[in-house]
Amino acid sequence: MDIKLIVSDLDGTLLNSKKLVSGTSIEIMEEAAEKDVDVSIATGRMHTCAAFFGRIINSRVPVISCNGGMIRTADTNELVYEKYIDDAVAEEILAFLFENGVYCSWYIGVENFAPYFSWKMFPDYTTVKTLDFIETGKNYKKYAHKVTQFILRDNKKLQADILKRMDAKFGRYVSFQQNTGYTIDITPQNTNKATGLKLLAEYLHLRREEIMVLGDGDNDLPMFAYAGTSVAMANAKEQVKKRATFVTADCDSDGVSDAIRKVLNI
């Protein structure tokens, strides 16, 4: 069955080590569009970032952010889908993090929140020219309504037992994804890139066999299982490579472009 939608992860996949989309990737995605193949993004980052890079690749369809918790258009931010953490749970999570001195950012709609903003906490985001944050200080309670995702952050290393403690306290209500040691994503339960991709497919009236996905991390595995064709980067974790249809070059060697050329014969 022909591919009609290509969905790429950002960090370590579409973005190279400089956190940029290569000109080659942009060109090949334009060629895909000429063949009536749409391109999109599925990322653990907030919608601001997904939309920014979605515009760079000229995505004509909505983009997936917050590990599947949000789907909006890249150009107008029109809402297709959102899933929220329970308001009471969100407030308790914020109280726990503030009490334990754990820095976090969180997302409500298209707005980004943090106690304070520091580039030291967002070293991989400097290439996003539309990044804005509302600084809450300790006045977080009025910003705990309809939260789509929390991100725990540390520019050195997160507290060693923070995930264990949070899982014991909140594991019944939320999911923990993409633990890098420096960041941990917290989403509503049963939310991942596959749930977001399935909803986008339904929105576009596509079958899973008509979708190709690219990624490199653990949080890409659910959409690997869902899509008809899955591509792992050469820089991906070994368990990701094992679950892929095939492996392409790394993110600094235009692996995304090579994979698209191979599948679409362009």
Automatic annotation (TrEMBL):
Entry-linked Pfam families: Hydrolase_3
Matches recorded under PROSITE patterns: COF_1, COF_2
PANTHER family per UniProt: HAD SUPERFAMILY HYDROLASE-LIKE, TYPE 3, PHOSPHOSERINE PHOSPHATASE
Protein name, entry field: Cof subfamily protein (Haloacid dehalogenase superfamily)
Organism in which the protein naturally occurs: Pectinatus haikarae
Taxonomic lineage of the native organism: Bacteria, Bacillati, Bacillota, Negativicutes, Selenomonadales
